[in-house]
């Protein structure tokens, strides 16, 4: 069964001086301003497609890892995932790298097995799969 989620953006003006608003329609959590400057230079209280991708990737990876761990008989006490998304405009705008940074507390799990499970989650996370065209997606996973 497929589930559909919706967001929309309304944009006014040209790219460098225009602005828009992105609305999370399904959840209703809000409407957020977007501009080219916020995307390519300084956020200044606005979001960007790359920040939204980072949010999606960190959430998806955390969910995927919790499931991989459960299937292996482990329950995470805490998974703290940060996704850093690099947007480069020097040779045409593109996402050049994503770094997943994970600090995890998983009682009874040795580091070697933990690393294997984290890598499995990274490769199987639906957002990772959707972002396969990004030249580099790395994972720095640490047990605490």
Automatic annotation (TrEMBL):
It comes from the Bacteria. Residues 1-11, 19-28 have a biased composition (Polar residues). Pfam families: OsmC. Residues 1-28 are annotated as: Disordered. InterPro entries: KH_dom-like_a/b (IPR015946), OsmC/Ohr_fam (IPR003718), OsmC/Ohrsf (IPR036102), OsmC_Ohr_Peroxiredoxin (IPR052707), Peroxiredoxin_OsmC (IPR019904). NCBIfam families: osmo_induc_OsmC (TIGR03562). This is OsmC family protein. It comes from Paeniglutamicibacter antarcticus.
């Amino acid at each position: 069964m497929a589930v559909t989620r919706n967001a929309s953006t309304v944009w006014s003006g040209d790219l460098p001086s225009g602005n828009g608003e992105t609305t999370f329609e399904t959840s209703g959590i809000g409407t957020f301003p977007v501009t080219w400057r916020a995307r390519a230079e300084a956020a200044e209280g606005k979001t960007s497609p790359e920040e939204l991708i980072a949010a999606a990737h960190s959430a998806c990876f955390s969910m995927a890892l919790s499931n991989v761990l459960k299937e292996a008989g482990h329950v995470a006490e805490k998974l703290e995932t940060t996704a850093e998304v690099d947007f480069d405009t020097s040779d045409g705008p593109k996402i050049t790298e994503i770094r997943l940074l994970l600090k995890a507390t998983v009682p009874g799990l040795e580091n070697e097995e933990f690393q294997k499970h984290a890598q499995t989650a990274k490769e199987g996370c639906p957002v990772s799969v959707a972002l396969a065209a990004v030249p580099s997606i790395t994972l720095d996973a640490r047990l605490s």
